Automatic annotation (TrEMBL):
Organism: Pseudoalteromonas xiamenensis
InterPro entries documented for this protein: N_methyl_site
Record has Membrane as a keyword: yes
Phylogenetic lineage: Bacteria, Pseudomonadati, Pseudomonadota, Gammaproteobacteria, Alteromonadales
One Pfam family here: N_methyl
Superkingdom of the organism of origin: Bacteria
Protein name per Swiss-Prot or TrEMBL: Prepilin-type N-terminal cleavage/methylation domain-containing protein
Segments crossing the lipid bilayer: 21-39
Keywords: Membrane, Transmembrane, Transmembrane helix
């Protein structure tokens, strides 16, 4: 009869090695860090877009008010205009300096056979606008047209 000898099997350790755990940890940490940065950048972009939209909305009504004010005050002989105002948390201050003033050429009257001088003088204003909302200031520079009716 043959005898079989049972040899004990070599016991293998099961589980992960230290190197495998460290590599997995580095990969996981990197993935979490990148995800956090992407989320942070997306949040900041969203906040900035909201601020810009709020600024643009307020700016439109402000520019309309400045335009009306300049057109009304162009009837005077002043060469410098200024104003300021507040809407909600939006503050603005503007200064307009007369850049150029001109009248259209005289108009020919066929009934009298002579040239009639223009009754209106046009004014080009250089406007510097400073706006402030939530502690952030922005400056704008533009031109606005006004006119002066001569009597």
């Amino acid at each position: 009869m043959t005898q079989f000898q049972i040899k004990p099997r070599k016991k293998r350790d099961t589980g992960f090695t230290l190197i495998e755990v460290l590599v997995a940890s580095v990969i996981l940490f990197s993935a979490v860090s990148v995800s956090a940065l992407i989320y942070r950048n997306a949040t900041m972009a969203s906040i900035k877009a909201t601020e810009t939209l709020s600024f643009a909305t307020q700016l439109k009504s402000t520019l309309s008010a400045i335009e009306d004010d300049i057109r009304v005050r162009s009837q005077s002989t002043d060469t410098k205009l200024s104003g300021q105002g507040t809407e909600d948390h939006f503050q603005y201050r503007w200064i307009a300096v007369l850049a150029e003033q001109a009248s259209p050429p005289p108009r020919f009257d066929p009934d009298t056979g002579s040239f009639l001088p223009a009754k209106r003088s046009y004014k080009l204003w250089h406007v510097e606008l400073t706006t402030t909302i939530a502690g952030k200031s922005k400056e704008y520079d533009f031109y606005e047209m006004g006119w002066h009716d001569e009597k």
